[in-house]
Amino acid sequence: MQADLVAVLVAVTGGQPRILTTGSGRALPAGPFTSNHRSLQASLRAWVEKQTHHPLGFVEQLYTFADRERSQQLGMHVISISYLALTQELDETGAAQPGWQDWYRYFPWEDWREGMPGVIAERIAPALHAWSEQASDSVARSARWQRAAMTFGLDEHEWNEELVLQRYELLFEAAVVPEAWGEGEGDAAASLLPGAAMGNDHRRILATGMARLRAKIKYRPVVFELMSEEFSLLQLQQTVEALAGRGLHKQNFRRLIEQQALVEETGQVTAVGAGRPAKLFRFRRNVMLERAIAGNKLPLARSH
Amino acid sequence: MQADLVAVLVAVTGGQPRILTTGSGRALPAGPFTSNHRSLQASLRAWVEKQTHHPLGFVEQLYTFADRERSQQLGMHVISISYLALTQELDETGAAQPGWQDWYRYFPWEDWREGMPGVIAERIAPALHAWSEQASDSVARSARWQRAAMTFGLDEHEWNEELVLQRYELLFEAAVVPEAWGEGEGDAAASLLPGAAMGNDHRRILATGMARLRAKIKYRPVVFELMSEEFSLLQLQQTVEALAGRGLHKQNFRRLIEQQALVEETGQVTAVGAGRPAKLFRFRRNVMLERAIAGNKLPLARSH
DNA sequence: TTAAATAATGCTCAGATTTAGCATAAGTCG
DNA sequence: CGACTTATGCTAAATCTGAGCATTATTTAA
Lengths: 304, 304
Fold this sequence. Notes:
DNA-binding, 304 residues, two-stranded antiparallel ribbon, alpha+beta, homodimer
């Protein structure tokens, strides 16, 4: 039995959520768990930090799975232990590192910052409707559609940004993502959705990581791991929006951040472009402990 | 490399939260991951169901760890994958199964149903205070006490029932639990707290499971996996209270349950003892899907 | 038979939180 | 200077929560 580590390594650059990939964007970075490390997490940290030249601010285990399919030999399992980790894309010199991709490249339907993405009404809803109709009896048909509608915020249902994994799994079941097809099995291409696929079950792991992060930012101050030392509240908000895939109400966002005393003013203001200059803030790392224990909230009300 | 499965198997019987143990209550049930199963979860399910003669309603992975310490040979790791699973203690005939223990036996300080347990003021607070004082400088001392106070709800701090793991780890660091001591290392016994220890890191795993479950019942309808087919709202409430380790406000509890349409009346009433008979309810399994997707809430306000 | 005692339920209220906007201030740009 | 952009202050309304009062239905003890 062998153990692999797989990482969903997230950064937010220029208001876009990014993940580190390998294999021309078809895989998540992965490596064997080498026994010369004390623990799994230590092993992961060492390995990722060597690749990115950035300390990992936040690391969290996602899920462990063992799939026989993934191994050549029958009866042989590879155990994969997946992690979510937060970092920054650019190194100290601001140089771009290769391999980073926008995560909405893999999940175009997850980005609701500009409202419901066209792909949902144009492609996903019809596909899921067709899938619903394939069910044997009318009860199963309506159950399928119910599920589809709730998961994707169709009909009267609200969009819930945390259901990234459920949505992916639904699309998988409905066989409208290429991963659901075996090797060279039919002309899938025609019926496929936009959104890049990945090898193995890496897109599923990515979905798990996205879901976890979207849930986490609501009650733990992890966003700050993605920010540079000083930032404006708008930058902070845009980072949250990038991750959550939805717009936030600006005034309420600010109120909550300041109310919880998560940040302090640096005294500086932004030098740049148009509009009134924004005050700069820094994260009060000293509240880390309290908040990590007590919990905190980020507002996720809709915007506009 | 070898993989073990460890299960925190929870039931609530007679208003008490119970866990399945082995080795005279010194260990959690564990077994090797056998390769003749498709997945980890399938393997765990099969194995536990054989032991308990109960289908597992709810299974969730907790954490995977690899500790060199746990293995004899240097450089050899055993990977342990821990799970939380919910079931019922009694089999169909109502016969008691061996090995079940009250979980507060291992964590007496976690049961606040009758208010703050005496052990906190009498033993834990003094021990943690002493530990704080051992720190080198005054900043570290006050940081230690701050942490202790927040974690255990001392001073002005609120008790947070979800911090089971943090509390255990704090006690471990302060070396007031026997697991923190090496084999036969000194007369620990004198300074030890009430609360049964476990072998390996099983008490830590149990703490992880308790914490996860306490968090989960607040937003997923998992309590129902622990109930029998029909139940009164008081029984339901007492089950939640048993898990959460705190009392709830009865009227508010009912309001939330009914408001969310999680249950439906069976038309029956309880036959038993004192007081006005209670209506019996059953869980509306058909809302399982919606709720599993949409989330739901259990109230956890204090009672009295 | 009646007075506790025990539970179940119905309702109300005040305070806190959340959502959605309005209004204004302080800059940049053409 | 006027249009435009972004930052910020404030508030009203709706909802959610925590607490507690009051009443009803049964069992048990006096």
